Amino acid sequence: MNNSFICPNCGTEVRVGSASCTGCGSDDNTGWSDDTIYDGIDLPESYEEHSKFQDKKKNSHLFSVFVGILLLLLFIFGFLF
Ligand SMILES: [Zn+2]
User: Fold this and answer.
1) Which of 39, 71, 73, 81 is the most exposed place for a label (fewest CB within 10 A)?
2) Is the dihedral of CA 69, 74, 75, 77 positive or negative?
């Protein structure tokens, strides 16, 4: 059964779901696991890529809005003349 894990900070066996380590008192906020540390390193890179993706999405959205307005104007002008 895998309902406990070894604290990477102090090596104490910690029950899965525990709020904090019984050995050293580390918890999610103080960063007790290697995963947390790696997440911190990964975050800026993935965030940058994410924001780039967002910018791309925003630009294409703006472009489609622009095209939509242009088509609407053409439609209105076609109606008038
Ligand atoms: Zn610990």
Assistant:
1) 81
2) positive
